[in-house]
Each structure stands twice: as C-alpha cells, then as structure tokens.
Amino acid sequence: MRKRGHFLLLGTLSLKQVSISLAPIPRKRYPNIKSTFNAMDASIGKLEELSKKIPKDRRMRTGFLAVETDTDPGEVFNSFVRSDLAKMSTLAEKIGGDVHDQMLAFEEAVEAETGVISYAASVSMPPRDDLIAKCEPLTDCADDAVEYNRDCDPSDPKKHHFQALADLSTMLGWVVAPNTVKHVKEYNQVIDLECDNILSNFIQLNCDPVHSDYATAIKGFTKQLHDYVVEYHPAGLRWNYLRGAAPEGYHVKKKVKARKDAHPFLDFLEIIDGPVAEYVYHSDLLGGPVAKQSRLVFGAFCKEYELITRAAVLDKGAAHVSRMYVMPVMYEIAEVGTVSEEVDREDPFYLHLKVCHV
C-alpha cells in the first residue's frame, strides 16, 4: 500500500509525470472508476443539501440543528416528575422514620438535578473535571439517600422501600451516563421489581395501604423520569440549547463573506468548521480511539474539500488523472475504518467507532 506522503507529493507533479507515476497502482482496488465517481457525486449532493441547513448562528451546540427553547429546561424536567414526587413525599411522611428521612435526601437530589439540567442548557459542555464538580451536590444528595439502604437491617420489613429509593437515586445519575436511555431503562426495570417486592410484603407491613401507595408513586416517578430522558436527552445530557445562551470558551464565528461568483461548495468548508469541528471537540473529551478516529474523519473532510475545489477549476480528465484526485480521499476514509477493527467488541466505545465507520 502506498504511503500517504506519496499522494501528497503527486499534487506537485505535471500531468505527464502523474500518468507515469500512477502506472504501478493496482487497478483491482478500484475496478470501476465510474461507480466511484457516482458514489462521490451522491455524497457531494447530500453534503450540498446539508450545508443549506447550517444554523446562521454557529455556536458549537451539542446537537447539529439543535432546537432552541425559551423555557427553563429544569422546569420542563420538574413538570414531568413534580406530581409523583409530591405523592412520594406525602406518603413517606406518613410512614415516618428513616423512610421519611431518606425521602428528604432524595428530594434534595432531585432539586440538584434540576440545577444541573438548567446549567447544561445555557453553556457548552465543560471539561470532565468541571462537569464532575458541577454535579457534586447531586451525587452527595444521592449518596445520602443510598446510605439509608446500606444501613438498613435485612430483617426490616421496609427494606424494599430503602432499596427502591436508593436505586431511584442512582437512576438520577443519567446526566453523566454514557448511554442515557439504556441507563434509565435498566433502572426502571430494577425499581419496578423492588416496588413489586413492597407489594408482596403487604401482610408483614400490617396491611397498611400507605405502603402500596408509596410503591405505586415510586413506579410513577420512575416512568416519568424514563419518559423525560427518552424524549429530551436520548443521546446524552443536552448542552447549550437555551435561546440566547453564550457558550463558555467559544466565540460566535464571523460569517464568511463570499463573492457572488464564489464556488457553491464554500458551504462545505463551513460544515468542516462547524459540526465536524464540534464532533472532534467532543471526541477529544472521550479520548482514546474515539479521539483518534475523529482526527481521521476530519482529515477525510479536508481531503474531500481539496478534491471539490480542484474539480471546480479543472475539466474532467482521463480516468487515471481523476483517480489521482479521488484516491487521497478514499485512503483517508479507509483509515477511519481501521480504528474500529483495532478495538475489541467488548470495548465500551466499540459502537461509537463502528457507527462512525458505517
């Protein structure tokens, strides 16, 4: 296989020299140059359509074309869970004792989570250490609620009360989970089981309906939390989507003033500077093979931009000349796929790499 440097060198040669230097390239790697060009044309067409959808105000948002909102996202979260949380609080107070104390700690955790959601909506994603520091009030309150379950006597008939609320407190950790939907779905199933155990201990609990109502309220809260995350944060905690938010550490890009006769694929360069740069930024936060692959993806986009700008001023030449311009792009794309092949399927980031490869 030719080294990348050889391809870069070809760009400085004359067409006569190029035709000679390309002779040794095995044609079997690209048996149908027409199909290759068709695939490139299709990709360019899609990118052209994509470029028309770039937001006017490029502020490094977590979601490409993320929908802005004027409503405090923390209040949206509260609207989902407020009713069931109030029921849980009232019933826990009736039960009394450590159940009530655990509920007070849980309510503080919910309040802290509301603050994290509101904060995330107004800024771009901070470094991981800063994010952990911002979530400390949430984790501290959640740990306090979990502690009641650790201290519970195994023979206590209310042990499932403590277990259910401890799991629900841990479920609030979806804000830092790598897969938010999977996180809340799994905890939803576990908490449902604990609530069923509360109902099965009805006799040991003196047949007091307050306990069954408490279990039902916890189930209701869990379902509402699950539905909220699936609807609003399916790909992770959303950042910087409150209207008028000013991202920390970033400046709004100045709009490029293009000439009237400028090549239409100037928009393609704006894609590189916008969503592709954002993808690389967040990949760097994850590090490891994800960061490595993102750099290769960025390189592929840059090579494709070179191809586009050259094609704008050159007539379509012979197949071997056209291949000279296409092959650096194909080489970069092939390199992207090798990263996922180097990682074990059990790696937590394997699917990240595979999706990007596809």
Kindly list the characteristics that best describe this protein.
Serine Threonine Protein Phosphatase 5, Tetratricopeptide repeat, 2 domains, mainly alpha, 14 helices
Q: Choose one word for the global shape.
A: elongated
Radius of gyration: 28 Å
The number of distinct helices, counting runs of at least 4 residues, comes to: 14
Strand content: under 5%
How far the N terminus sits from the C terminus, by CA atoms, comes to 23 Å
Low-confidence runs of at least 5 consecutive residues = 1-32, 54-67, 246-256
Q: Supply the helix-strand structural class.
A: mainly alpha
Mean pLDDT: 73
CATH class of the largest domain: Mainly Alpha
Q: Tally of extended strands?
A: 0
What CATH calls the topology of the largest domain is: Serine Threonine Protein Phosphatase 5, Tetratricopeptide repeat
Q: Tell me what the CATH architecture of the largest domain is.
A: Alpha Horseshoe
Record the SSE blueprint:
Elements: H1 4-10, H2 15-21, H3 33-51, H4 73-95, H5 97-122, H6 128-134, H7 136-150, H8 159-171, H9 180-200, H10 209-232, H11 266-286, H12 288-313, H13 319-341, H14 350-357
